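the three lines:
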Amino acid sequence: MSLTGKHILSSDLFDRGELERLFELADVLTPVARGRQVTRILEGAVMASLFFEASTRTRLSCEAAFMRLGGGVTTTTGAEIMSIAKGESLADTSRVVSGYCDLIVMRHPEEAAVHEFAAATNIPVINGGNGAGEHPTQALLDMFALHREFTRTGVTLDGRRIALVGDLRHGRTVHSLMRLVTLYEDLTIVCVAPEPLGMPVHLLELAESRGHTVELSDQPEIGLKDADLVYATRLQTERFADRPMPYSDAFRIDKALVSRVCREDAVIMHPLPRDGRPGSNDLATDLNDDPRLAVFRQTDAGIPMRMALFSSVLGVADAVPDSLRPAAWYRPDYTGPHDAPFYKNIAT
Amino acid sequence: MSLTGKHILSSDLFDRGELERLFELADVLTPVARGRQVTRILEGAVMASLFFEASTRTRLSCEAAFMRLGGGVTTTTGAEIMSIAKGESLADTSRVVSGYCDLIVMRHPEEAAVHEFAAATNIPVINGGNGAGEHPTQALLDMFALHREFTRTGVTLDGRRIALVGDLRHGRTVHSLMRLVTLYEDLTIVCVAPEPLGMPVHLLELAESRGHTVELSDQPEIGLKDADLVYATRLQTERFADRPMPYSDAFRIDKALVSRVCREDAVIMHPLPRDGRPGSNDLATDLNDDPRLAVFRQTDAGIPMRMALFSSVLGVADAVPDSLRPAAWYRPDYTGPHDAPFYKNIAT
Amino acid sequence: MSLTGKHILSSDLFDRGELERLFELADVLTPVARGRQVTRILEGAVMASLFFEASTRTRLSCEAAFMRLGGGVTTTTGAEIMSIAKGESLADTSRVVSGYCDLIVMRHPEEAAVHEFAAATNIPVINGGNGAGEHPTQALLDMFALHREFTRTGVTLDGRRIALVGDLRHGRTVHSLMRLVTLYEDLTIVCVAPEPLGMPVHLLELAESRGHTVELSDQPEIGLKDADLVYATRLQTERFADRPMPYSDAFRIDKALVSRVCREDAVIMHPLPRDGRPGSNDLATDLNDDPRLAVFRQTDAGIPMRMALFSSVLGVADAVPDSLRPAAWYRPDYTGPHDAPFYKNIAT
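prediction for all of em together
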């Protein structure tokens, strides 16, 4: 399958072969993402960045990735685009903007909007998040980060024990991850959540139908044990405003818990943002200097993965390697003060 | 007349010769607009995009056009720019921003603002819409689209029958069009509007003074007959909130009406956005697969025309042809799913 | 000292030697800032422009400067970034965005925020204004403008008489200027302010400890006399809403006052924006055609100075001169209609 010219609306689009081709390209592009090399492969191309709903993180990452490839970006966000489109169909907006650009990245609060948008244009549309639906570029960057975490020691993801923790019912990120991670083989997937916030049954069934072992737990103290990967998400206390919370603060993943129950070589991920305030049932910031915490390596993976996706969709993937040249400006060896313990083990 | 260094505040600036020079340049730049060729003629130049009033459409089109020429764009919109300029004169804002850039595109809700702005700087200011005033780049793209529609079959606009339909009293777009289209010869211009929303008399007189025939009608069923061009605009029902509407829903231009009364080779245009909701008195979306509907070809014309204008104002028009090189990325043959029936007839 | 890789949070970072190296580089880059030359020294680099608080002026100037160096810019402002960061620590936001870019320019309403931000990343952070704190790039551009004003006639700033006028208590701009201007020698600094709005004592002491003469006055009519430089700032009437204003309108610096008391070759500066409305106690617009008014030369100085700073921080300063090539597009000889009387004396 070639991705050239495709809309990227769902993570269902990818099989393992396609994932691995994207990982290879993202590896080649990592020095560009880190400001060590330059490519101008998309010089002259224009991306339209249409965020009907605010999302600084995804938007900035996609825009930076497209610019790193040499392209230009024109942006509109939130209130502005919503107000002036009064009465205009999404199909018209889509077709009009398509005349301005070569690629569209959009986010919209309504799940159906991105599909209406894509149906009205031949220009590739990348789903940057559609309501409670999908967020395929986040799923891809999560998989690329996972792939890097496990291959750095010469092994693969196959056969690993994976703990998914937190609100597994409402998170589109963890749902997309379930679809992609189960493309690997022989996993044990431990879903760790308070009972009312468990993983949807159809996703558990998907995992089992692909030959994986599924376990359920409502206690992190038990569920995180022996996991190679802990993928944490936030428990949103406010969902239970008027009722007693159906869980204790055991779902706070902090230094104490990790020290007690996690493997020495575990990998801890989280899609971010995490609630760093005291008392939040989320991944705690006291883990920042623990090399097992992979959340910043994970977010960093978004740039090379999105570059890989954009260059594949625009049909220039094969030409990327020959387009690279050294960058001349200063870039620190490590992006953040806590990066070193991990990166010392791999080539950057 | 050379456009180099000129402010572009009104469509009155252009005569037919200047229009045709811009059309020629826009033709040369069309492959760049469509992602088939690349130019970097304005590499290093900076455009300031100052939208004191929101306008995603015009803003994104201007920004994409400038980036397609190789330049960079810095943008500010709406609330942000208005709040911090508290107490500062427009003249100061203009002169300050002029020190940052080589070209300013601005939109402002007050008609006089763009003139104050232009008076305070030697950097070219492009009017992106000033209240009820003018919108010259929209008028230019309309004319370029018209020119392309009529010349694709080897004829020109001269001698044609043109129906302008809808609210002809309040639309700055259709007023600017009147000024430019009457630079051609021997037209029959049919103004089709409910009586209270008719074309201003001074524009009717302008058309007659330039030797054209003017006809008035308040019935689309009659007014659209035999027209080579139908230029539709929205009837804003809300203007008559408390009174009975002075017209029927005959002003809905839909498939049924077009089938009954329009020529087989008519061209149907509209400045967009159009109100696509049921019951709107506007151009209907059920015409989308009718090749006579030129609205997307029309909006697409904005990129090459704005590129032609910017490169003329910045004095690089003559150097454009030698600056072109092929683009390497994927771009669909047709931007939208309904484009093909028209484009099969002409070189893209 | 090398600026490569440094955070630029305070103007205290600079000594006179560093200032003069930046002036030299800014001189080299002035033709790029004025659209006469092009450099692509930062082609492929990305700047993140994070304005938690609106600031069109500083933001557009920084973005244009980075683009003039060849880099790309991704931007977020105000409401958008503040709302989605709910619960996330500034440290997380900083580290995440650092994975997207090579340089961060940020403004934040809270003084401590920029320090938290910088502590969480190795990517250089430029303070674009932190509440009542500092605004070092404004201080640098002020100093570069001052340097240019005085060296154009072959002399330096040393030994000059400088009048600082207006609200000297609350303005971070004038505080930063005090820190930098006192790096020069043998100045007479006249602080002209109503008594309750005087310069903070520790800054007066700083000036005296560096060997300068300090004088105080509450009457512009006297304080401006014989000054080589008049640096005006706005008196904010609204601070005294419920009390009688502790000063007359003598603090309006207009043509009449300047004609009466200022030297023929005085230089009049102001950080802008100025309140141009009738009755404001600010620098008046009736001075616009007086060549002593340096405010637009001052704001223009922001582009080359910010280019000099960015290229120094990113370690490419030495490579700048060889990277220059001529620009081909139109650029007026003078940016504003009142520029000529000054610029006729110096090479542009």
